[in-house]
Amino acid sequence: MHVLADGAVVPDEDFILPFILDESDLHGRMVGLADTMNQILRQHDYPKPVARLLGEALTLTALLSAALKFEGVFTMQTKGDGPVGLLVCDATDSGALRGYAKVDGDIPDNSSSASALSDLLGKGHLAFTVDQGDDTDRYQGIVELNGETLEECVHHYFRQSQQFQAAVKVTVAGGDDEPWCAGGLMLQRLPGDEKAIDAPRMDAVWQTAMESIAYCDLSQLVEHNTSPYDLLFNLFNGDNVRVFDAKQARAECRCSRKRVGVVLASLSDEDIEAMKEDGHILVTCEFCNRSMSFDEIDLATMRSI
Predict the structure, then answer these.
(1) I want to staple 63 with a disulfide (CB 3.0 to 4.6 A). Which of 30, 122, 186, 259 is the partner?
(2) 257-304 domain in CATH 3.90.1280.10?
(3) pLDDT tens-digit profile of 164-197?
(4) Which CATH architecture is the domain 9-251 placed in?
């Protein structure tokens, strides 16, 4: 039976869709990213393997952030000794996404769109951070980059977590002359939230659900051949699917002249002079690639505030 919660809204191409499997009380999220993904990846001239990797990270960020109850920013970051030294993605509680990759070296000539994670990131760590503002403590979880994909690294983190179990699946398509797009699926087993199901049966239900996700063909979602509702129903047939309002996902950078100005105003005169070229300071946002120029008048105004 395919059940929609009261007032549920049909998602468009860029969405974060929450759902519950009523029979087992498992919680899930489905993500579809089209224009959002394409806009973020096209802001930089990344090699295709790097763009695909960043697309996977953005999709995972959307899934993981939607699984948390918070008001603020969720960040997923990798840092390694490979040619992609830094990968950063974040999402706000309202569904705004951004991300960038810092390429420190040459991408191997034998790299393909399906390059092994170690070829790009090398050895390092994966970190998750939840920032809810200055008046709250930041939460951070860190795990080694242990896996052939980011998806496997996230599963490695879940295996070490005592808070909940989860399974994720992502797919990214596009590049070259084709627009980028992505789909993702996440299912959670939360401690204490399960209904009156005996432990052995619940373990069996969870194992079956994980196998279903592992073999799920998300290309149907990415290619818009199947609606998210139909895909969920077909995937979890026999366990009533209750779907709730989708959150609109969008590409949105939080950089601004005001924010950059505050940073510049805090620097010493020596640092300011070292940054000047022809009397101007040019600052480029690493996320959206937007450039902002500050002249002597701008700098003097910032210092006076």
Answers:
(1) 186
(2) yes
(3) 788 999 999 998 889 999 999 999 987 655 555 6
(4) 3-Layer(bab) Sandwich (3.55)
Q: What is the pLDDT of residues 234-272, one digit of tens each?
A: 888 767 888 888 889 999 999 988 888 888 888 888 888
Q: Which of 78-87, 196-205, 257-266 has the highest mean pLDDT?
A: 78-87
Residue 212's pLDDT is 85
Residue 218 and residue 169 in contact, taking contact as beta carbons nearer than 8 Å: yes
Token pair for residue 5? 């919660």
**DSSP per residue, 234-289:** HHTTTS-EEE-PPEEPEE-----HHHHHHHHHTS-HHHHHHH-BTTBEEEE-TTT-
User: Tokens 């373990």 label which residue?
Assistant: 203
Q: Which residues pair with 97 in a beta bridge?
A: 91, 251
DSSP structure string for 251-264: E-----HHHHHHHH
Nearest 5°: CA angle at 250, between 244 and 255? 135
Indicate the domain borders of the chain.
Answer: 9-251, 257-304
